[in-house]
Amino acid sequence: MTNISPLNSSKHLNTYIKESKDFSRFAAQSLIPIVVQEFAVLATEFPIVFVKNAESGQFTPIAMMGIKNNFNLYCQTKNWEASVTPIGFSKAPLSLMQTSKESDEVMVFIDEDSELVTSDEGNKLFDDSGEQTEYLKKRSNALLDLASFTQQTSAITQYFAELNLLAPKQLTVKLNSDSPEVNIDGVYIIDEQILNELNDEAFLTLKSKGLMPLIYAHLTSLHQIGRLITKQNQLDKA
Length: 238
What we know:
By secondary structure, the protein is an alpha+beta fold. It has one domain (18-86, 116-123, 135-237). It has helices at 39-42, 134-162, 192-196, 200-208, 212-221, 225-237; strands at residues 4-6, 16-17, 31-33, 48-52, 59-64, 94-98, 106-111, 117-118, 123-124, 166-174, 181-190. The chain is built from 6 helices and 11 strands. The chain is globular, with a radius of gyration of 20 Å.
């Protein structure tokens, strides 16, 4: 449960935020939305695929953190052991929300029920005169950056879709010799054949927009499925 309220210097003058690597709140979420700016880094640990919103048709890139539905292999304990972390993991307990449906203006909100929010420990959000601390300014700018990254990611994935590069793929995984195969449905990947058959203009446009490294990072990341299989097998044997 959350208790979201607008952040303001009067109500939250003596509010602190603790930094934590406890991401167990994602324990039941095996597919984590990410932005294109972190493809290269996250591809070293997680398979990156795309999912499609059934209502809007919009594609979203995600980092796979589990083989089984609703089970994140990395977030079952309070200790984060991976060498890389999705940007979105670190935004809690703060978030950006529009001030109204009619306005593009946004403001920072805080989840007052978060375990990261305290009255005496961590990083203070406002100084004694009610001005934002450097810590809050940094966190607010990070939220704005993430919002911008999310918009860019949406535009880029839409462009991939317009080129028909995103193809549905059923991933079939066999955990061990004694277990049945596990089918992972509903994911999309870049179709290498379609990519290679693009005309020169379309291919050069991808290159000029700087999108080829994203595609290569995505395709390379698919080899990390083996890492998930290993982690799942280790967990099952424990």
